[in-house]
Design a protein that fits this description.
Order of helices and strands: HHHHEEEEH
Number of domains: 1
Largest sheet: 4 strands, antiparallel
Number of strands: 4
CATH topology: Nuclear Transport Factor 2, Chain: A
Helix content: 10-25%
Number of helices: 5
Radius of gyration: 16 Å
Structural class: alpha+beta
CATH class: Alpha Beta
Shape: globular
Distance between the termini: 28 Å
Strand content: 25-35%
Oligomer: single chain
Mean pLDDT: 91
Length: 162
């Protein structure tokens, strides 16, 4: 991805000013939220190595790489919305981030609402695990009459709600 393109994590910054250095391991993420954003960008870019490196080693499974590759073949990650953070700053050793990620899976629009947990070990934030939450807060739901996430200027219902 070109460093001048908008960052996939939907921060509003260019990729080169946002997640690029974290994904390229130039510098560690300063917070749990930053790690969440960079992991979302890595999902968008298909960077399985970064996802495995930033997942706590105690949580690894032998088939992580295959599971991620299969998921990425069927999904296109579209946007990320941070709902809430708890701790996870530079002075903390644990953090929590609740987020809504929008994506298409096999061409169908979906949203994932997760409450994720992170730990900081040796100055590096790591994703440990998360809980999927069924009810997405209304302000984070893509609604039919809302402007589409893709920036087309059309309403969601006529653009991507198929």
């Amino acid at each position: 991805m070109n460093s001048d393109n908008p960052c996939p994590c939907t921060s509003g910054l260019a990729f080169g000013q946002c997640c690029q250095d974290f994904i390229n391991l130039v510098q560690p993420t300063p917070s749990a939220e930053t790690l969440m954003r960079s992991r979302f960008s890595a999902f968008c870019l298909g960077d399985i190595d970064y996802l495995i490196q930033t997942h706590h080693p105690k949580q690894h499974k032998p088939d992580d790489r295959e599971i991620l590759a299969k998921s990425m073949a069927n999904c296109q990650w579209l946007s990320l919305s941070i709902v809430k953070t708890k701790r996870g700053n530079a002075s903390d050793t644990t953090g929590e981030v609740s987020f809504v990620a929008s994506f298409t899976e096999n061409g169908e629009f979906r949203q994932l609402y997760e409450h994720s947990r992170f730990v900081k070990e040796q100055d590096q934030w790591l994703y440990t695990d998360g809980d999927i939450i069924d009810t997405i807060p209304k302000e984070h739901q893509w609604q039919r009459n809302r402007a589409c996430w893709c920036g087309s200027g059309k309403k969601f219902k006529v653009c991507h709600n198929k």
